[in-house]
Amino acid sequence: MNTQELQTLDREHVIYSWKQQGGWKPTVIDHAEGIYMYDTDGRKIVDGCSGLLNINLGHGNRHVLDAMRAQMEKLCFVSPGFGTEAKAKLASMVAEVTPGDLDYVLFTNGGAEANENAIKSARWFTGRQKVYAAWKSYHGATAGAITLTGDPRRWPAEPGIPGVVHFFGPYPYRCAFGTTDPEECGQRTLAVLKEQLMYDNPKSVAAIIVEPIVGTNGIIIPPKSYMKGLRQLCDENGILLISDEVMAAWGRAGTWFGIEHFDIVPDIISTAKGITSGYVQLGATIWSRKIWDYFQERKFTSGLTYCGHALACACGIANIEVYKKENLIEKAAKDGEYLASKLKALEGKHPSVGDTRCKGLWACIELVADRKTKAPIAGYNDSIRNISAQLSKIFMDNGLYLYSNWDYIFISPPLTITRRQIDEMVAVIEKGLDWTDTLVK
Ligand SMILES: Cc1ncc(COP(=O)(O)O)c(C=O)c1O
User: Whose CA is nearest to atom 6 of ligand 1?
Assistant: First the structure.
């Protein structure tokens, strides 16, 4: 079938997520290798956001493919009550790289389900109902996870599940509490949260869930003192701290888990994406020891047909082997510094660049219409104008796929990218910025 025939067939039957169905005409990808995807017309496209920030190893990693093939020949799936070598091995390998005593793993299909099980675990463990989640957060699209989400993706799903309360996290570039100093922003934000909890009865709160570094809401890196304060606030009130590491883990932030940047240990971690680099879907809810102990004599009344899918677990094992063998976590940290410096240089050069933020190979350019006043260019939920469609076109016309949304351009290539490829990617990004510069007042 040629591209046009494929597109026609696709649009006759396929429902696309997060899209108005009419008018969408997808680029059809045929195959991919390393950081490159190839469409059905043979065009080479840099996968500059690692798929949906999940293909951390890049496409077509031979070790992973061989491990998956071997597992497929042996066993793809058994009922989740059975043990398998792949499941036991992967859980122990995950436990080895998690911080503290987060050593107990429930495998899910993806990130949203990992969060659903995280909040269920927290509610049952504490006997409390409320879950605090941050504004400017994304936690997934299932009923509970979308209710936790603190951005406009939640709106159509309202009222959502009961018991979810939102609070402000620190956003130093646009601090809600009137300062531009990151530390001060963290402290003021924490003080407001403390007060909010006081009025709401802290003893009614089961958990606070945070992305340790905010992902799709703008790669916002909280001050370490804020995160330490959050941990303390949880401890003082018997509240569990859940770190949503669906995006932040597996080298993305230059560490195994994003929370390592803050020297604190959460009570529960949820993760997905880079655990298998998306070769096959897998997520995980990871418990600390006290939660594990609690469920020794109590039933954990939750599950999925695909808890611990053998093929997915074998894929996870092979991914961790590659992360270790090729030192990709350390590489992401070092190359992240390089990427950060390249993006910093854009701040002085392009008037539409308000701020750049980067941790590991996980970066964002925040666009503005005015650098002085920080007036946004697209506005919250594109209330001023939608710029991402035109930006995507400019990037794709130049062979680069990047995820951009609202005022944000995200740059998160596979961890295997070379510095020369980073330079090439930034050169294309500049073509997009040349256009956004024309929108500056
Ligand atoms: C921080 C975070 N949590 C949860 C999710 C949801 O994961 P999934 O799409 O695998 O359900 C995402 C997805 O991007 C995410 O970034």
Answer: 140
